[in-house]
């Protein structure tokens, strides 16, 4: 599996485009904004999107979702705890940012009800429930590729904020310690903002965890 990071929008939220090099099928993780950038990458690389995975439903992670689904007629996945956030600007946070129009996004096609294995076309991953930044935050672990897409749970040298609606720092720290830091040290952490890191590095140097 090949993957590409695309920082999008005013908060530079990382959208990830995963591609299977044999079939050219692709999965899009967190299409937060700037649909034209996503579309350009898909077109230039002759990819065939088949699904959208959302780590959570904050506005900067879902902003281009309707455009993505309309362009390629593909389903999206989100944890059930945030199913009503898509249409609620107060919950998805768009009402808190003056530069953002209040955001109302169509409901997702697939709700994640628990930790599970996902098989979508040629892609296989494990869904971990990692709440704390938000109640329905999840992380997607691709074990064969040694990478986890952690959303806004764990960052390079930091952790997600917990002062937004539904945030809980104690819960977030438990999620990180119980679900993320137990992964192999060499696992790449692909976060919702900023640069990638590894589990080993965060165990050793993250000031919120040491």
TrEMBL record:
CDD domains: metallo-hydrolase-like_MBL-fold (cd06262). The keyword Transmembrane helix does not apply. Keywords: Hydrolase, Metal-binding, Zinc. Its cofactor is Zn(2+). The keyword Zinc applies. One of its GO terms (molecular function) is metal ion binding. SMART domains: Lactamase_B. Residues 12-193 form the Metallo-beta-lactamase domain. It holds the Pfam family Lactamase_B. InterPro entries: MBL_Glyoxalase_II (IPR051453), Metallo-B-lactamas (IPR001279), RibonucZ/Hydroxyglut_hydro (IPR036866). It comes from the Bacteria. This is MBL fold metallo-hydrolase. It comes from Terrilactibacillus tamarindi.
């Amino acid at each position: 599996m090949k993957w590409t990071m695309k920082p999008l929008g005013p908060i530079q939220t990382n959208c990830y485009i995963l591609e299977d090099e044999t079939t050219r099928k692709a999965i899009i993780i967190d299409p937060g904004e700037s649909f034209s950038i996503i579309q350009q990458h898909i077109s230039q690389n002759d990819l065939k999107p088949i699904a959208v995975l959302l780590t959570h439903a904050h506005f900067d992670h879902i902003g281009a979702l309707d455009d993505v689904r309309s362009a390629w007629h593909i389903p999206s996945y989100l944890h059930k705890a945030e199913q009503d956030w898509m249409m609620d600007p107060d919950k998805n946070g768009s009402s808190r940012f003056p530069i953002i129009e209040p955001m109302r996004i169509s409901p997702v096609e697939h709700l994640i009800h628990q930790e599970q294995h996902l098989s979508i076309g040629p892609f296989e991953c494990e869904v971990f429930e990692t709440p704390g930044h938000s109640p329905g935050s999840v992380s997607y672990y691709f074990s064969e590729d040694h990478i986890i897409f952690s959303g806004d749970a764990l960052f390079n040298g930091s952790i997600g904020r917990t002062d937004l609606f539904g945030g809980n720092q104690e819960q977030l720290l438990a999620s990180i310690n119980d679900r993320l830091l137990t992964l192999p040290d060499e696992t790449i952490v692909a976060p919702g903002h900023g640069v990638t890191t590894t589990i080993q590095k965060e165990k050793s140097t993250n000031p919120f965890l040491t």
